[in-house]
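Task: sequence in, structure out. Protein: GNAT family N-acetyltransferase.
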Amino acid sequence: MAQGHVRPGRPGDAGEIARIQVATWRTAYRRLFPRHVLADLDETEFAATWRDSIMAPPTGRHRVLVAVEQSSTSSYVVGFIAFGPSDDLSTAAEIGELLVEPRWGRRGHGSRLLAAAADHWRDDGFTSALAWVFDQAPATPKFLASAGWAPDGARRSLDVEDMLVPQSRYATLL
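Result:
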């Protein structure tokens, strides 16, 4: 029987985190971004960025956690969450990325990642948490809503190849 747990990201996880990010973006956002944008995602470049984020975070309140699926014979990094202090609200933590590779979805990994992050947020003195989510990719908003998060009314759009991709900000109190 497989079990899941969350642990801090390690430098050696950077390649797997990058692979998960690219694979998940190509699946989850295939109707959101132009094909060439997703095709051009560079795993090697992402891995270097994740390695730096793990080894030398900007502050002691920036973290990368990974979800691990473990059986009696093997273990796999299957998802991750990256977070730090919000640029918008001084008392809030902000999720930079929360992804579980689709083939490992619906096994509780996202909930474990979110719960582990919330423990860190409370320990770090945050009173709330924020996350920007793509309006046209419903999985993350549904997941956050099921965990008690709600839109707070803030909106923005990312410019991707001259195409504006709308996002809504979700928030929760800790």
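The longest helix spans residues 14-28.
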